[in-house]
Specification:
Arc Repressor Mutant, subunit A, 3 domains, three-stranded mixed sheet, elongated
Length: 477
């Protein structure tokens, strides 16, 4: 059994109010792990926005914004319930699209029957004119015009797929239907033997650009700049025994896992007590309304995607983060064991920034505030990958303490800020940090040292209430 370091608090503060409130409300209603709820919300935004925008990183590096996510969780953690909340708009839209398609097929059948009867009549007329030796140029021209007006069969459109194969999903691709979401509670859809042979396709769909799909029984197709969002949940033991041990080297060398936002949230089973509080869907409804607006734009989009750029200050934030991660990859750097993921972490920051910017309805370039939110999310998912990567990337199976992407004082700051936001309080007692904080920080000397660093950085402010020392985080950072 592989032991893991404690999970860091999810940076719920690093999300815009609309999605943050919906996540908190959904987490309260379902009592599912917060990281699972938040990751499902990001999946919804990725699915709704990926066909409309690209993001340009500093250096004029243009790329897509679609996300791949992998949640390791035991059965019963309520991921399906959570997905139904955040993906509800997609399921309802697909039902409406299916009804519309049925009507179009009926109309097409009628038009095709009329067209075929006209074709037969013109061919019969032409045949008679030829046999009679008459001038048939007019009839020939009329027949050519008619043949060029053959009714085109309607194309069925879908926005979301569940238990399907990659090939089955891509059958729906067309110039007007080039955006897909694959949401599965059965990880085997992505990680079984057949799907593993399609790693190249999945990797290419994450990278963006066009690709050619070869087929044995029919002509191949060219997918012109498609977009795919993937959200998969798989049980940890199934993942480790049935996947990592057999296909570890293939996955690592192909960079497949490096393209996923991975997490293994702490289980809430055993703590999901019914309290009798009123169920609320106020913020879920607002979230669904915004997703529907984005789906409308998504379905109407068929031309070139709009490219989002970072403002000068936001570009500096991205560049500093990229350089910080890059400096840890070489030699004896702390990220040398997971270079394949760390090398893509800054790109994920850019994708998240683009999604936050567009889903929030922001105009112009990506702001520094949005870049900072995206950085916090990228840091958290990066730390999760490192935390979970020991059995996948380290040669020493006994190594259970992961390397961190950020200094410990920033981890403590993020935890304090997240805790205060979750509880709706401006500050917290220092003793509460010792009692409730992450285990590795529950030592008085270490807490004092880390808080001193945060005082110097103006990230937290000490407040004396009576005889009690409290700590107030700077919520603007």
């Amino acid at each position: 059994m592989c032991l893991l370091a404690p999970e860091n608090p999810y940076p719920i503060y690093a999300l815009p109010p609309l999605v943050r409130n919906a996540i908190i409300e959904t987490q309260k209603n379902t009592q599912a792990p917060l990281a699972m709820v938040a990751t499902s919300a990001l999946t919804a935004f990725s699915s709704a926005c990926q066909n409309q925008i690209d993001v340009c990183r500093p250096g004029n590096l243009r790329g897509p914004v679609n996300l791949y996510s992998l949640i390791l969780a035991d059965s019963g953690e309520r991921k399906t319930t959570v997905d139904k909340v955040f993906m509800k708009a997609f399921y309802l839209r697909d039902e409406a699209l299916a009804e519309e398609y049925a009507k179009l097929v009926e109309n097409y059948s009628t038009e095709k029957e009329i067209w075929e009867q006209k074709q037969k009549a013109l061919e019969s007329k032409l045949h008679k004119e030829i046999r009679a030796g008459k001038d048939c140029k007019a009839t020939e021209s009329e027949l050519k015009r008619h043949l060029n007006k053959c009714p085109v069969p309607p194309q069925i459109r879908r926005t979301i797929f569940n238990e399907t194969t990659i090939e089955g999903m891509l059958k729906y691709y067309s110039d007007s239907n080039r955006s897909f979401a694959l949401v599965s509670s059965e990880g085997g859809i992505i990680f079984d033997g057949r799907a593993m042979s399609k790693l190249g396709i999945l990797n290419s769909l994450w990278d963006g650009g066009s690709l050619f799909i070869d087929r044995k029984s029919s002509p191949g197709i060219i997918l012109k700049d498609p977009r795919l969002t993937v959200s998969v949940m798989i049980q940890p033991d199934v993942y480790q025994k049935g996947f990592c041990t057999r296909k570890k080297e293939l996955v690592k060398t192909s960079g497949h896992h490096a393209r996923f936002l991975m997490c293994q949230p702490t289980s809430t089973q055993g703590t999901r007590i019914i309290t009798g509080d009123n169920y609320s869907s106020q913020y879920q409804d607002l979230f669904e309304q915004r997703i529907n607006e984005l789906i409308d734009e998504n379905l109407a989009m068929s031309g070139e995607r709009r490219c989002l750029h970072f403002s000068p200050q936001a570009a500096r934030i991205w560049t500093d983060y990229y350089n910080d991660v890059e400096s840890k990859l070489g030699g004896l750097g702390p990220l040398r064991h997971c270079r394949e993921y760390a090398a893509k972490n800054a790109e994920y920051m850019a994708r998240l920034a683009g999604l936050i910017h567009h889903s929030s309805g922001e105009e112009g370039d990506i702001s520094p505030y949005t870049a900072e939110m995206a950085r916090e999310l990228a840091i958290w998912y990066g730390n999760e990958y490192v935390r979970l990567s020991n059995p996948l990337t380290f040669d020493n199976p006994a190594l259970t303490v992961p390397v961190r992407l950020i200094p410990e004082e920033l981890e403590l700051f993020n935890w304090i800020k997240s805790y205060c936001i979750e509880k709706g309080i401006p500050c917290m007692k220092k003793n509460d940090i010792l009692q409730r904080g992450p285990n590795r920080f529950r030592k008085k000397d270490k807490i004092n040292w880390l808080l001193d660093l945060l005082y110097e950085q103006n990230r937290v402010v000490p407040i004396i209430e009576g005889k009690t020392l409290c700590v107030a985080p700077n919520f603007d950072l």
